[in-house]
Amino acid sequence: MLPSPVTYTTLMNGYCEQGNINGMLELLREMKEKAVHPTHVTGTVVIKGLCQQGKLQEAVQSSRLRGKAFQLHNEMLMHNLKPTPVTYNVLINGLCVYGDLNDADRLLISVDDCNINLSKVAYTTLIKAHCAKELCKVMLNAFRRGGDSSSVFQLLAEMIKSGFPPD
C-alpha cells in the first residue's frame, strides 16, 4: 500500500519543522519515483522548507535554495497545481528575508496580474521589509552626518548580514 500525498506532505512538513531539508527532499524524490502526485499543499510545504533553510545558510547557499523554491513553483504551474495565496506568501516572505525586495515586488505584481487574492500577510511582509531598508538608510545618513563612523560600520555590517546591502 502506497502512502497518500497527504501522508507524504505531513511527513515532509515534519522534516521542514525540524530543519531537515535533505529528509524533506528525499521524500519528494520518493513521491516522484513511486508516481505519487504531489498536491499544491505539498509544493507549498517544500517551498517553505527551502526558504526557511536558506535563512540559516551562507548567502551563496541561500540563493541556490531560493532558486530551488522558484523552480518548484514553476514545476507546480507546469503540472497544473495551482499555487495558493499561502504559497505566494511563503515566496514573498522568503524574498524579503533575503533582502531581494525587487523580486518580491515583481512577484507581487505578477500575482496581482493573475487576479490571485493574497492575504494581508504578504502585503504586510513586503511593507515591513521596505520600511526596514529605508530606516537603515536614514540611520546611516544620521550616523555619517554625526561623524559616528563606528556606528556606520556596525549598521552596514548588520544590513549586509540581514540581506539589505546598501545602495
Automatic annotation (TrEMBL):
The record's listing under Pfam families reads: PPR (PF01535), PPR_2 (PF13041)
Q: Which GO terms describe its molecular function?
A: mRNA binding
Q: Where do the PPR repeats start and stop?
A: 4-38, 84-118, 132-166
Q: Does the keyword Repeat apply?
A: yes
The keyword Oxidoreductase is annotated on this UniProt entry: no
Give the UniProt keywords, A-Z. Answer: Repeat
Q: Which family does it belong to?
A: Belongs to the PPR family. P subfamily.
Please report the name of this protein according to its UniProt entry. Pentatricopeptide repeat-containing protein
Write down the species: Rubus argutus (Southern blackberry)
Name the lineage: Eukaryota, Viridiplantae, Streptophyta, Embryophyta, Tracheophyta
